[in-house]
Write a structure and sequence with these properties.
This protein is an alpha/beta fold and 146 residues long. It has 3 helices and 5 strands; from the N terminus they run αβββαβαβ. It has helices spanning 18-41, 94-104, 121-133; strands at 62-67, 82-84, 87-89, 110-116, 140-144.
């Protein structure tokens, strides 16, 4: 059996670089597009309105709900995730505790939901769902923790 020799006289050695070059170009295009998108979203200047007449709200007219971080190591029945006006509560009692406070405040002016930076999104949504069920539509979201 005879060997087929190329015209140049030597065998081709080494890896084919074509797939690697294709991947590099795809990454280059991806980062070019992503960079342009980030620049466009940062172009919008938002002017916040200035309050001519600010209304101060008394603490008695405020409902404060604090959402703590979810600690997996604590047993579920002992886990305290929420505080409603400084009173600790568990998820099972959350709706009833918020309802008590909302019913006890005659002229509810402000609802503030304060969430730890490591709080679960699901827990914050649970508070918002309770407020919606009680037809409390105006609330503020605050963030606490470093």
């Amino acid at each position: 059996m005879s060997k087929i020799q190329r015209k140049s006289g030597h065998a081709v050695q080494g890896a084919d670089l074509t797939p690697m070059i294709d991947v590099v170009f795809l990454l280059l295009v991806f980062f070019m597009v992503a960079t342009n998108f980030v620049e466009e979203t940062q172009q919008f200047n938002v002017e916040l309105p200035k309050a001519e007449e600010a209304e101060t709200v008394k603490e008695e007219q405020t409902l404060s709900v604090v959402v703590h971080k979810f600690d997996q190591e604590v047993p579920a029945d002992e886990r305290v995730i929420f505080r409603v006006n400084q009173e600790e509560t568990k998820r099972a009692d959350l709706f009833n505790d918020i309802k008590k406070v909302v019913d006890s405040i005659k002229d509810l002016k402000s609802v503030v939901i304060k969430a730890d930076k490591n709080a679960r999104y699901q827990d914050i949504i649970s508070v918002i769902s309770c407020l919606n069920a009680l037809e409390v539509e105006n609330f503020n979201l605050a963030v606490m923790g470093n």
